[in-house]
């Protein structure tokens, strides 16, 4: 099958760095019939390639499916008088949400069967799932095209065990991912909508039984750098509205028992000062970076939330990510020494640490809805340990395993993982986690699959993947890089990989790959790189800086046309992103961003084999970025390595929905790497 060719139409961008020709700029217009024609041609071309390798795709899909216990149950969570649980059934794509009066009967009442709601939709995703304080009404929202625009509905739940009564007449259109919060009496729901740039910007108050047109604006954020989020404190006493940019934040409060009261500002926003606030019984507890780059914890009187007294001092390199308040203690989720852990702090000043050991791992707080809880539920997983839910007595540390995701037919003792440290060009030590079969030799013969992200201070803890085993069982080494731009080693790690230091993200990744190759973890000609969204930028920048280092790459919904997108304030979310990347409408940001923008650096030379994905309804990275990049690569590259673009016509940033389609999609991405590194 012949490669698709996107027509070239003259277009020039005027930039501070000079005029820039972009003959594929027309692809930004999704209403141009030629745009869909081109995307469909690329899809057909990709389908043809995967059809030629259909046996391998089917084989890997079968392997993934065989390692999943399709009929399964989550660990039940107690909330008030009910135990809530999610279950899955063999042959059905989506989860089923249930509850019961005891832990053993938690599946008795079906609250929401996503399979029923998804019927007839190519795409389906749930966002809000919030039960009212008296547990009689469920607020739930869904997206049916991947645009991240949600419709909120309200389901009346039977007061006793049995089937749900059904959805009420209340329907809220155009809600977004900014959270929800119920009033104390369950008569009012706070929710968030987005502006024209799809930025969560406005908090509304909806009174049950009234039309959406009667809803009242509680808070409207006019500064385009800020996102808005609303939640209910664990104590159920306060509605907390948080408005945050990349560099500063502000909290507003509404008593849950008096939802009609105006929202009041806890502490007015200040440039470069971030804080979050939670209710801790007789006081507020505050997490802030004020005079503390890696954050510290403060307290404040209920009547004077701006008067802060230090509770937990700042310690450089120990990045406190969040605080969770319970009646008798606080839980701090933090990263120390590039590993996540939880710190339990009691009212008497004593504390204890919950950590996951030396193997690279993830440790995240699980569902803990009860204000008076004396146990802590948390999730643990590693590159060799499936996702597990533990419950631990906060005082004694007595721990019990509630649930470990089954992996049928797999001997996990066959796999080994460890952390390596690579040396960047400026001498910085960069962590990289590797996993392989114990029998895979470290003798420079193995194929290597590398995954990276490195933006937004997002720490990327190692996770377990049944799909990844299909690579490891074929002799692959798999590596997770932690370049600057993430948050694994504290706020400074992030600051050294953003704005005018962004290139460190890419050179750190390259240094990690060079380290692994030099130390025998991989054959020098058998390396693949993978990342999505900002991680797709990492992929694009690395293969344009060092195309010789990689045989193949997978770029999922990649942010690759950096200068053009960040120059256009009308594109969704652009303004909020300037604090992360810079504003290329002026110097020196224009020149610096141009120095690494993959689309602008795609020139006449040989490139690795590439699988690129896009979502037509993606509100975060518009489909036209990957589409333009592939079109340009086809026109200018000097080799004929595999080059594929797959666009989900009915989905968005996260790709297809439903677990079987997700597994099939993953099987294609793994098959691509297996074929290209053979």
Q: Would you write up a description of this structure?
A:
With 678 residues, the chain is an alpha+beta fold. The protein folds into 3 domains: 304 residues, Rossmann fold, CATH 3.40.50.1820; 148 residues, Prolyl oligopeptidase, N-terminal domain (Methylamine Dehydrogenase, Chain H), CATH 2.130.10; 131 residues, Prolyl oligopeptidase, N-terminal domain (Methylamine Dehydrogenase, Chain H, 7 Propeller). It has an 8-stranded mixed sheet, sandwiched between helices.
Outline of this structure?
The chain is α+β, with helices and mostly antiparallel strands and 678 residues long. The chain is 18% helix and 35% strand.
Tell me the name of the CATH homologous superfamily of the largest domain.
Alpha/Beta hydrolase fold, catalytic domain
Q: Strands of the largest sheet, in order across it?
A: 31-32-34-33-35-36-37-38
Major sheet description = 8 strands, mixed
Indicate the low-confidence ranges by residue numbers: none
* Structural class based on helices, strands and sheet pairing: alpha+beta
* Rg: 25 Å
**CATH topology value of the largest domain:** Rossmann fold
Helix content: 10-25%
What's the average pLDDT?
A: 96
- Tally the helices: what do you get? 12
Tell me the CATH architecture of the largest domain. Answer: 3-Layer(aba) Sandwich
CATH class category label of the largest domain: Alpha Beta
The count of domains is 3
Beta-strand percent range: 25-35%
Shape: globular
Number of strands: 38
Q: State the end-to-end distance.
A: 22 Å
């Amino acid at each position: 099958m012949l490669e698709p060719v996107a027509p070239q139409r003259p277009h020039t961008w005027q930039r501070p760095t000079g005029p820039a020709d972009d003959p594929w700029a027309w692809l930004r217009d999704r209403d141009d019939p030629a745009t869909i024609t081109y995307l469909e041609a690329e899809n057909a071309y990709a389908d043809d390639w995967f059809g030629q390798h259909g046996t391998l795709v089917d084989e890997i899909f079968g392997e993934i499916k065989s390692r999943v216990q399709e009929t399964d149950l989550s660990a039940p969570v107690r909330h008030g008088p009910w135990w809530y649980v999610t279950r899955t059934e063999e042959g059905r794509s989506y989860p089923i949400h249930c509850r019961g009066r005891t832990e053993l009967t938690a599946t008795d009442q079906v609250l929401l069967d996503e399979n029923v709601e998804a019927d007839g939709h190519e795409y389906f995703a749930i966002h809000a799932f919030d039960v009212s304080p008296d547990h009689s009404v469920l607020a739930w929202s869904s997206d049916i095209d991947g645009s991240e625009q949600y419709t909120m509905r309200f389901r009346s739940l039977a007061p006793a065990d049995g089937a749900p009564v059904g959805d009420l007449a209340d329907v809220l259109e155009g809600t977004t991912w900014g959270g929800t919060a119920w009033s104390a009496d369950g008569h009012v729901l706070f929710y968030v909508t987005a502006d024209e740039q799809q930025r969560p910007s406005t908090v509304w108050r909806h009174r049950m039984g009234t039309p959406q047109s009667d809803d009242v604006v509680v808070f409207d954020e006019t500064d385009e750098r800020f996102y808005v989020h609303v939640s209910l404190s664990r104590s159920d006493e306060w509605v907390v509205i948080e408005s945050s940019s990349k560099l500063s934040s502000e909290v507003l409060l509404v008593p849950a028992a008096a939802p009609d009261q105006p929202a009041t500002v806890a502490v007015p926003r200040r440039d470069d000062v971030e804080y979050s606030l939670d209710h801790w019984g007789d006081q507020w507890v505050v997490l802030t970076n004020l005079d503390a780059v890696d954050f510290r914890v403060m307290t404040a009187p209920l009547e004077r939330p701006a008067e802060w007294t230090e509770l937990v001092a700042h310690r450089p390199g120990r990045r406190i990510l969040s605080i969770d308040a319970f009646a008798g203690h606080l839980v701090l989720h933090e990263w120390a020494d590039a590993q996540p852990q939880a710190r339990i702090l009691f009212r008497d000043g004593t504390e204890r640490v919950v950590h996951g050991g030396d193997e690279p791992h993830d440790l995240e707080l699980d569902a803990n809805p009860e204000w008076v809880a004396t146990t802590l539920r948390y999730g643990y997983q590693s590159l060799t340990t499936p996702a597990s839910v533990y419950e631990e007595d906060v005082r004694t540390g007595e721990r019990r395993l509630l649930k470990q995701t089954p992996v049928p037919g797999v001997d996990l003792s066959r796999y080994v993982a460890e952390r390596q440290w690579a040396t960047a060009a400026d001498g910085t030590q960069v962590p990289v986690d590797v996993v392989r079969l114990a029998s895979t030799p470290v003798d420079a013969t193995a194929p290597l699959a590398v995954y990276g992200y490195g933006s937004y201070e997002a720490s990327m803890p190692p996770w377990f993947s049944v799909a990844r085993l299909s690579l490891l069982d074929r002799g692959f080494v798999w590596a997770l890089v932690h370049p600057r731009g993430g948050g694994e080693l504290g706020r400074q790690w992030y600051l050294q990989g953003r704005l005018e230091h962004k290139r460190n993200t890419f050179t750190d990744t390259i240094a990690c790959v060079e380290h692994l190759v030099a130390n025998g973890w991989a054959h020098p000609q058998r390396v693949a790189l993978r990342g999505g969204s900002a991680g797709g930028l990492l992929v694009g920048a690395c293969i344009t800086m060092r195309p010789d280092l990689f045989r193949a790459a997978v770029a999922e919904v990649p942010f690759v046309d950096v200068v053009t997108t960040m120059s256009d304030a009308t594109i969704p979310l652009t303004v909020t992103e300037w604090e992360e990347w810079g504003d290329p409408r002026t110097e020196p940001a224009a020149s610096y961003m141009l120095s690494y923008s993959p689309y602008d650096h795609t020139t006449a030379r040989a490139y690795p084999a590439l699988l690129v994905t896009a979502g037509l309804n993606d509100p975060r990275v518009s489909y036209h970025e990957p589409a333009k990049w592939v079109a340009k690569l086809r026109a200018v590259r000097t080799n004929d390595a595999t080059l594929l673009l797959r666009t989900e016509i009915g989905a968005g940033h996260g790709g297809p929905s439903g677990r079987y389609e997700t597994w099939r999609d993953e099987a294609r991405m793994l098959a691509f790497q297996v074929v290209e590194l053979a």
